[in-house]
Fold this sequence. Notes:
This protein has about 450 residues and is α/β, with parallel strands linked by helices. It is built from 13 helices and 13 strands. It starts with a helix and ends with a helix.
Amino acid sequence: MLYFIWQKRGDKPLNKSQKAEDQSISYQDWQQFFQEIESKLLRWRRDLHQYPEVGWTEYRTTYWLGQELVQLGYKLSVGKEALVSKARMGVPEPEVLKQAENRALAEGVPLEWIKRMEGGHTGLVACWETGRPGPHFAFRFDIDALPIDEGKEDGHFPYQEGFRSRYRGQMHACAHDGHAAIGLGLASWIACFNKVLNGSYTLLFQPAEEGSRGAKAMVEKGWLDDVDYFVAGHIGLQPLNIGDVVATTSGFLATSKLNVFFHGKAAHAGVEPEQGKNALLAAATAALHLQAIPRHSQGATRLNVGKLVAGKGRNIIPDQAFMEIETRGETTELNRYMVREAKRIIQAAAHMYDVQLEIVEVGEGLGGESDKEWVDIVQKACRNAIYVQHVLPHLQAGGSEDATYMMRRVQERGGKATYMVFGTPLPAGHHHPCFDFDERVLMVAVETLGRCILQLT
Length: 457
């Protein structure tokens, strides 16, 4: 059982002695559900961890989640049924997508599923209707991985326990494997207690969160247009104790992700260098001068040049250069300031070296704030919880998240949205090759979401 595994990691099981006082679901019902779901949560998370797929290539992940959800009785929307194709951002090149599709086929994904997702139309939406009047709830669970080669160090739990990533250069280093497992856990809870629930439930398993590329495409499909209550969330973000739940998060930095292409002219560096147009120098000039953008007085602003690739050989004037950059701002307006200034400097650098320029926006996240009402909702909902130990009112994010697209759509239409954080110790930070989390957090998150539903129906 999971308790044995927890003890193996040097921790004691959480206290289960406190009884819930919910009128519709007895303490015995809660206890039995958790006893049945514990091992499944662990299996789901570890399976997903071994098969990480980066944004818009989550073919196996989408299929695997879909099979679990179909068995529970959910109505699924997959591929173009789940999102607006043209609203996707930062979609990989066709040959990259084809390689991922072939790999998924080799992993056992049926051809009919590949055809539904073909061309990077991954992710799915699962819907449940109780048939009784009540609120419309929506929950977002991101499912993509990162282009990181997972560590093999002693003490890295997935490596020690044999569920390290099987894909070289790809890893779940931001807990999205855990988020997807929580989504399946909540789906199981809704299906189990359907008879005492009201309203409707939409579970969005979102691709391409990394780089803020996927949420907008789901929002534009209309899934959030009539939602009363929306919840997204994250495992970790900063080290907290198991059983800690943060009810609201604010301070998300708006962000833009830009791919920049410099197109010059190759020439022999010794024989006729004057015939060349040096794309490398244009990119290097841009990279340096981007750092000179004045930070804004009205709030936090950020800029990072994360990648620069150029040149083919020491005796060739470089005719191509490629740069990946991102901007961030405390508000959407401040981020737009950074984008405007960044484009101005990049264009000036290209003009200086007489090279052609292409700027492609491949990701975007908005600024966002949780509705404060969720503090009271979560505190009341978890008052007699089994696994939740403390409800913390608020956390300042400091990062970016494209779930803000979903939050904003719900809030614009009169609904209430929040972004929760589920506490865990962190042996290594997010996006680190040895990132991991305490698996007990999965139970905490499922209980929190289930109890919030009961509180609001």
